[in-house]
Each structure stands twice: as C-alpha cells, then as structure tokens.
Amino acid sequence: MVKNNVGCADKPAGDIDLQRTLTISPIHANSDDITLQIDAQETLQGNTAPLTAEGCKPPPQPRQVSATHPGLVLKPGEWSTWQIVDKNPSLTYKVRATLATAAQ
C-alpha cells in the first residue's frame, strides 16, 4: 500500500495498493539452457502526476500492466533481464534459473 499526498493542502490520501502476480513455468531444461514461460501482472503508480490549474495534486491513478514471455531462454546460473515497461516508471525483471540435482 502506497500513501500519497493530494489536494491543495498536500494531505495524505489517495492510497494505491501495489500488487504483483508472477507465474513462472519451466518449459525446457538441460545443462546448456533453461526456458521459462513467464506471465506477469503488476499494479504500478506513475512517477509524476500532473497538477490542477490551481496547482493542487490530484489523486494518482493506478496503472495495470500485463505481460507474457512465451520462452525466456537462460543459461543455468546466469542472470538475464526482461523489460516490460520502459518509462514512467520503468519495470524490468531480473531472472536467473538453476538446475537442481535429484536426491538419491
């Protein structure tokens, strides 16, 4: 939950419940590469809100973002990035996958 100061009095109000839901499914894995399907849903708040003609701050509006990556290919143990939103605000996921050894 994010609190914002709004109105001409710049008082706390206009709360936004920021949420993130990620679903990550491995669709291929071996010692050379790992492929993940990623579904993402985000509730974001922009970096700036326009002022009214009187110079007052209106309540910020939440921004809903949904994205799907059908096959992000990773080298085991190495980091990769997937940019979903490039500005206001930017949103980039940093992803890494490793293979686990089966217990005997």
Structural commentary:
This protein has 104 residues and is an all-beta fold. It has one domain. Helix content is 0%, strand content 57%. It contains no helices and 7 strands. It has a 3-stranded antiparallel beta sheet with strand order 3-4-5, with no helix packed on it. The radius of gyration is 19 Å and the shape is elongated. The protein starts with a strand and ends in an 8-residue tail after the last strand.
Widest beta sheet: strand line-up: 3-4-5
- In total, the number of strands is 7
| Average pLDDT reading | 88
Count of all domains = 1
Topology:
Layout: E1 2-6, E2 11-16, E3 20-29, E4 34-45, E5 62-74, E6 79-85, E7 91-96
Antiparallel strand pairs: 1-2, 3-4, 4-5, 6-7
Using brief descriptors, characterize the structure shown.
104 residues, mainly beta, 3-stranded antiparallel β-sheet
